[in-house]
Write a structure and sequence with these properties.
Blueprint: H1 2-23, H2 27-42, H3 46-71, H4 75-104, H5 108-131, E1 133-134, E2 148-149, H6 165-181
Antiparallel strand pairs: 1-2
Length: 183
């Protein structure tokens, strides 16, 4: 039973770490949703209105960043957007690594060292996932083979037949802009 408990603890920590690294890019919309939800509850939105306002604020944050990133051609603007999304991931990574270090590390100095390393790794992972992906403008549907480009990973993926409407609209706007401006 002891061995089974140890194996399940290791598996649980592994799943928890996988979730942290996978969901780190959504830290900014989550923080916005929590703050707006708290403000809405304090303003008297009630128990039914607060989650609606919070989900709408988080969704709008994600949608605005998605559209800004998809429409921008400047690498510096894309880096700024990716940085804005990576900063809350760094903060979340620091706190998660600090809590995990407090479980097994008795020294306060080593706890902070592990927390800073966790922040670097989670922030670096979020930054990498946000800045390296396939560009939807270079998809096979646009007539070109897919090339690596700087695009937010959760916002863009390899194009499939079941694309959402927003991606199709943005791609059509880009095609129309190329036709009008000849770029």
């Amino acid at each position: 039973m002891l061995a089974l408990g140890l194996l399940l603890n290791i598996a649980g920590i592994g799943v928890f770490c996988w979730l942290i690294f996978t969901l780190a890019v959504y830290a900014l919309p989550f923080f916005v949703a929590i703050n707006v939800g708290s403000w809405a509850f304090d303003s008297g939105a009630g128990l039914l209105g607060t989650p609606l306002v919070a989900v709408a604020a988080g969704g709008m944050t994600l949608a605005i960043a998605q559209m800004a990133f998809a429409m921008s051609r400047s690498p510096s603007l894309r880096a700024v957007i990716a940085g804005v999304f990576a900063l809350p991931a760094i903060l979340a990574g620091h706190h998660v690594a600090l809590v995990l270090a407090q479980i097994g590390v008795p020294s306060l100095a080593w706890q902070e060292i592990f927390a800073c390393l966790g922040a670097i790794f989670v922030g670096g992972t979020a930054w990498t996932r946000l800045t390296t992906s396939r560009n939807p403008a270079h998809s096979n549907r646009a007539g070109r083979a897919g090339r690596l480009a700087t695009v937010l990973t959760p916002f863009s993926r390899l194009q499939r037949a079941s694309d959402d409407l927003l991606t199709l609209i943005i791609e059509q706007v880009r095609v129309d802009q190329r036709a009008v401006f000849g770029t």
